[in-house]
Amino acid sequence: MLTLIRNGTLQVPAPAGVQSLLLVGDRIARLGSVEESALSALGLPVEVVDATGCIVTPGLVDPHQHLIGAGGEQGFSSRMPEVRLEQLLLAGITTVVGCLGTDTTTRHLGALVGKARQLTEQGVTALLYTGGFPVPPRTLTGSVTDDLVFIDCMIGVGEVAISDVRSSQPTLEELARLVSSALIGGRTAGKAGVTHFHAGPGRARLSLLHALLDQYEVVPESLYVTHANRSEALLDDAMALSRRGSFVDMDTVDGDLGRWLRYYLEHGGVPERLTVSSDAHTAGAEPAQLHAELAASVLQHGLALERVLPFFTSNPATVLKLPRKGRLTPGADGDVLVMEAKTLELRQVFTRGQPRVRDGRLLTAKEGEGA
């Protein structure tokens, strides 16, 4: 399968001007001038997409979703459903990382692994964290390190709750052991090995993470904190953590992401260490909010697309050590979005080189194969 996307303005995620992008199989083969007659002479099926008036970007990398549902803290009737494939594709999410949260009793890692593998077989790259809120974490093999080494889709541990009444109130020594276990598993298996922390609204904020860096031999890049935009005080603490080399994630649950991004950028947060996630499916959080908040940050809050796009693409790919994701570069996976330049409305979505959304409409499996 060959796909030529021509006449689009490329954001790779940095601006790259109007040029063509060629997909061959499941990878990006070329950026720049492509001779269409030479492609036709190969005798292979070629789809040509005219992206005039559009921006061509990498697919979105969502580093935090509850793929088998979250909720349930107001009783069983408040449990959220699983995320569906079409919700991801119509939001432009081509890579997603699933996790367990509060409930590690009635929701199981085995089910999360099954969901991740289902989505991956359906064309979206789905990975996950082992564990959940409590420490010691629930695992499949009995060990965080072993989970990361032996289970292909597990890339870290989390989301581990701190500064929250729902936290298991781990000691600093317990957290140090957990972070070390994830790091060793990641290095052994060539994965991210990050510990993904849920930051609650508690008064301690991120003091435990600063103490880890102060008192233990902890690699700053192995700490990855989410929900940093709960308050200015928490975000200030998270920005200080970013300056020490750790990674920070904001979610799109409450909207107004553009205001938080501007605050982060204007008050000393390190741009290269910031990501954005949807936190779907918690109550009120849907995958569609990720793309919607990207668009709102640009169109309503006046932030430049090239400034915020890395938070949704290349930055999470860097945190999660996914070199073929989040960028338009030869050899990268063919995860590509085509958006209207003026509105940032999604027009086309490709995952691993295959067309999945066309003119804002989800393609059937037969349509995608026949494109």
CATH level 3 topology of the largest domain: TIM Barrel
| Poorly predicted parts | none
Structure annotation, total helices: 12
Number of beta-strand segments: 17
CATH class annotation of the largest domain = Alpha Beta
Helix-strand topology string: EEEHEEEHEHEHEHEHEHEHEHHHEEEEH
Set out the fold topology.
Elements: E1 2-11, E2 15-24, E3 27-32, H1 36-41, E4 46-50, E5 54-58, E6 60-65, H2 85-90, E7 93-98, H3 109-121, E8 125-130, H4 144-150, E9 154-162, H5 172-189, E10 194-199, H6 207-215, E11 223-226, H7 232-243, E12 247-251, H8 257-266, E13 274-277, H9 288-299, H10 305-312, H11 314-319, E14 336-340, E15 346-351, E16 354-358, E17 361-362, H12 365-370
Parallel strand pairs: 1-4, 1-5, 6-7, 7-8, 8-9, 9-10, 10-11, 11-12, 12-13
Antiparallel strand pairs: 1-2, 2-3, 5-14, 14-15, 15-16, 16-17
Describe the structure in your own words:
This protein has 371 residues and is α/β, with parallel strands linked by helices. It folds into 2 domains: 2-57 and 327-370, Urease, subunit C, domain 1, CATH 2.30.40.10; 60-319, Metal-dependent hydrolases (TIM Barrel), CATH 3.20.20.140. It is built from 12 helices and 17 strands. The chain has helices at residues 36-41, 85-90, 109-121, 144-150, 172-189, 207-215, 232-243, 257-266, 288-299, 305-312, 314-319, 365-370, and strands spanning 2-11, 15-24, 27-32, 46-50, 54-58, 60-65, 93-98, 125-130, 154-162, 194-199, 223-226, 247-251, 274-277, 336-340, 346-351, 354-358, 361-362. Strands 1, 2, 3, 4, 5, 14, 15, 16 and 17 form a 9-stranded mixed beta sheet that branches. An 8-stranded parallel beta sheet has the order 6-7-8-9-10-11-12-13. Helix 5 (172-189) links the parallel strand 9 and strand 10. Helix 4 runs parallel beside helix 5 and helix 8 crosses helix 9. The longest helix is centred in the middle third of the chain and has 18 residues, at 172-189. The protein is globular. It starts with a strand and ends with a helix.
